Amino acid sequence: MARMEWRPTLEVGHGQIDAEHRTLVDALNRLHDAVEEGRGQEEVLRVLSFLRDYTVTHFQSEESLMIAHRYPGLAAHVAAHARLVTRVSDLLAALRSGRTEVVEAVQAFLGAWLVEHIQVMDKEFGWYLRGRGLAS
Q1: The whole model's pTM is what?
Q2: What percent of the chain has pLDDT over 70?
Q3: 59-to-3, 24, 78, 121 alpha-carbon distances in Å
């Protein structure tokens, strides 16, 4: 899998959300680099653990904004977030048990999920915020 480049199509129009998404993209690229450079399972696990933890923090941030602004798509968004956290936790457990063959699947899955989630669900939330004059 190639490094993921930040591009305007990933912007949702809210400064905090966009900054957090950039951090996630950077973490995905650190995972990519760790794998490509053969830095070992410990480094891959460390970066993937950071990704999981930061994703949880980011999701809490987004969900707090959704609650504060009564976003009607909150339930579906929370469900999508929960599915990702479960999936990443399962992948981390597989890696910790020695199943290194899942590393490439992890990279591909996370990259595809992040792009899809941002370009569909998060963009809808961004439009909602802008419609209420709340984009920054």
Answers
A1: 0.86
A2: 98
A3: 23, 11, 8, 12
CB 130 within 8 A of CB 48: no
81: tokens are 């977030």
DSSP codes of every residue in the chain: -PPPPP-GGG--S-HHHHHHHHHHHHHHHHHHHHHHTT--HHHHHHHHHHHHHHHHHHHHHHHHHHHHTT-TTHHHHHHHHHHHHHHHHHHHHHHHTT-GGGHHHHHHHHHHHHHHHIIIIIHHHHHHHHHTT---
pLDDT, one tens digit per residue, over 54-97 is 889 999 999 999 999 999 999 999 999 999 889 888 888 888 88
Dihedral sign of CA atoms 8, 106, 50, 78 in order: positive
